[in-house]
């Protein structure tokens, strides 16, 4: 239950106010601005009753703008997170997996080698004895070319993700700063103090 006080304007009109309006300013229908006294000053005013249920005010311009700033901040954070996850996946595709991590590959190679005839084993050995410098078959060259192109494309995409991530972080920061500044600038206490300082 909130107590109502009677605040009079110099024009003679009376206004009913509550304690939560203390320190703020009130516009009279005559065009003048009335300064609402502090809590202590309200005790000197005439009490004219009480309200049983105080309805909370709806969203105003302040809350709407702050909410918009929060949405922009959240969108920037989500975008930056998604971009970083996608970048990590691209870099994982480019990673070279050590030979030891291929499950069962050694066993498969040994099993295949056991099935080779002496002539086939000698032909395979002649091709492998030169290592990476040996002449590659067309299929091997095609595979390596495709792999190199895919790695280069992934690196370019990851680099673009870095730029977009920076932009998303900047947007998130702007949203957070804007929300904080609007919450402070449009606060009722600041508006009341600004009105009281006006001539």
Notes on the protein architecture:
- This protein is an alpha+beta fold and 199 residues long.
- The protein folds into 2 domains: 2-56, no CATH class; 58-105 and 153-191.
- It contains 6 helices and 5 strands.
- It has helices spanning 39-42, 61-94, 105-115, 118-128, 138-185, 188-197, and strands at 2-8, 14-18, 25-27, 33-35, 46-51.
- The strands form 2 sheets. Strands 2-1-5 form a 3-stranded antiparallel beta sheet, with no helix packed on it. It has a two-stranded antiparallel sheet with strand order 3-4.
- Strand 3 and strand 4 (33-35) form a beta hairpin.
- Helix 2 runs antiparallel to helix 5.
- The longest helix is centred in the last third of the chain and has 48 residues, at 138-185.
- It is rod-shaped and about 115 Å long.
């Amino acid at each position: 239950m909130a107590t109502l006080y009677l605040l009079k304007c110099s024009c003679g009109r009376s206004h009913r106010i509550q304690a939560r309006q203390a320190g703020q300013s009130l516009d009279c229908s005559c065009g003048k601005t009335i300064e609402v006294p502090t809590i202590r000053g309200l005790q000197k005013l005439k009490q004219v009753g009480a309200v049983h249920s105080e309805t909370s005010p709806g969203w105003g311009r302040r809350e709407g703008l702050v909410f918009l700033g929060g949405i922009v901040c959240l969108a920037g954070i989500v975008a930056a997170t998604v971009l970083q996850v996608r970048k990590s996946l691209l870099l994982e595709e480019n990673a070279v997996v050590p030979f030891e991590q291929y499950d069962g590959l050694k066993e498969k190679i040994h099993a295949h080698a056991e099935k080779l005839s002496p002539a086939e084993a000698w032909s395979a050995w002649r091709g492998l004895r030169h290592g990476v410098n040996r002449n590659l078959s067309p299929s091997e060259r095609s595979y390596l070319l495709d792999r190199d192109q895919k790695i280069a494309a992934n690196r370019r995409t990851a680099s673009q993700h870095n730029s977009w991530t920076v932009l998303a972080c900047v947007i998130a920061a702007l949203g957070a700063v804007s929300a904080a500044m609007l919450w402070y600038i449009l606060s009722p206490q600041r508006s009341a103090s600004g009105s009281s300082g006006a001539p």
